[in-house]
Amino acid sequence: MKFLATILLLVPAIAALEFPQCPSPSWPTGPGSEIRAPGVPRDMARILSGISDKRIEAIIKKLTTFHTRHTLSRQDSPTIGIGAARDWIKSEYDSFGGNLQVSIQTYLQPIQAPRIDRPVNISNIVAVLPGYDSNRVYVISGHYDTRASDVMNPDIEQHGANDDASGVAAVMEVARVLAKQKFPATLIFAAVAGEEQGLYGSNHLAQTLKAAGIDVQGMFTSDIVGSSTADDGVKDPFSVRLFAQGIPLFQSSAVQAAYAGVGGENDSPARQLARYAASVASNIATGMKVRIVYRLDRYLRGGDHRPFLIAGYPAARFTEPNENYAHQHQDIRVENGKQYGDLAEFCDFQFIQRVSKVNAATLWNLASAPGTPKNVTIDTIALGNDSKMMWIAAKDDNLKGYEIVWRPTTAPDWTNEIWVGLVNEATVDLSKDNVVFGVRAVGKNGYKSPVAFPLPSV
Ligand SMILES: *[C@@H]1O[C@H](CO)[C@@H](O)[C@H](O)[C@H]1NC(C)=O
Ligand SMILES: *[C@@H]1O[C@H](CO)[C@@H](O)[C@H](O)[C@H]1NC(C)=O
Ligand SMILES: *[C@@H]1O[C@H](CO)[C@@H](O)[C@H](O)[C@H]1NC(C)=O
Ligand SMILES: [Zn+2]
Fold this sequence. Notes:
CATH topology of the largest domain: Aminopeptidase
Helix content: 10-25%
Mean pLDDT: 91
Bound molecules: 2-acetamido-2-deoxy-beta-D-glucopyranose, zinc ion
Shape: globular
Largest sheet: 8 strands, mixed
Number of strands: 18
Number of domains: 2
């Protein structure tokens, strides 16, 4: 497909520009809509309202009954250890029905210092909701393995209610409510293991997808999303952090230089994905504000989005706003009258319900929209006041066309958008020296893709 149209858009010079907010998308909000807020499609709001704090509570409490879910714990008991937890999660996914295709993906992890001291089978429970119109995939995951104070102790009791039964429960509950939906794109709901030993399960999933050439256009891990209460009792129950990397640190130095060289350090695919999640999931349907953190992860910590970034996929991490370290990675004990350990009693199931809604709203929008534009470049052949962008127009029956977005270089999020139509290039009369540009796809159904940042053409 080749579009020859070039659009020359006459926009006032930058000096004269103000930066009004993007107009809100006009979702259907006719009679019968319970929620009449911008950015909240009616069907989505109805499905999200089915996400149940009671079911989340039941999943988390069940997951705390296996004594431990340490990756190196037993796999031969129906009631104790990670093998029993694996089989229970699988049977729950199987019960969701709809179009979910559920399987256990197992591989033999050899000894690997410092945290795998003997060969061990690591299993991911993977539920796939196939899309009807595209090979695009979006993944959400939580990890079902646990750890106690000593990361190498597979025998001591540990409940792992917040870290990360909360994330597993969120992902399972989203899978359940979406199981009967049909989207253009494919969704994967994963419960992975080996996280505490070194992100092994997620790495295996990411590498398997990469080896199969799967076009994963977004991945989110929900890890430690169980509570919003800090150790001093401060609560922040209506926000969730989303950690998103800047410069693509795990890609080649040439790719890193391409971003850094044009002030693109805030415009990696992971950052675009995070902006997208914040824009479609901070609303009345989720009851949450997504707070992007410009960082791969918290200091000294790692998470299951990292292996997806390493595989070259955009990925980010949801985590509660305030962590309480007495209830993470701690043996269950009372010391000086203080309870330590990762127990379900410290979880806020309605908070996890809202985090589940954030995941569901993000997936709903991603899976309904066209894919992120590919091979987007900005013309840097000659000096000029205009900015010309080029991309590959997708073959997609749902594709209505494209929008150019921009913002001042110091602004965190897009401030302006212009419709350019079903074309594969557009020229804007606004200097690329002064703003950050992006391109996104718009579906005939009104849903929009994440933004792609144009790298220099030469
Ligand atoms: C891994 O699982 C296979 C199949 O169940 C089993 O035969 C093998 O003994 C397991 N390996 C280890 C190290 O547990
Ligand atoms: C698009 O980008 C991919 C990945 O960088 C590259 O392999 C491919 O050749 C590009 N296609 C075109 C038509 O430029
Ligand atoms: C570039 O823009 C400036 C400011 O609007 C204008 O003075 C100048 O003539 C333009 N140059 C070209 C080559 O269009
Ligand atoms: Zn964790």
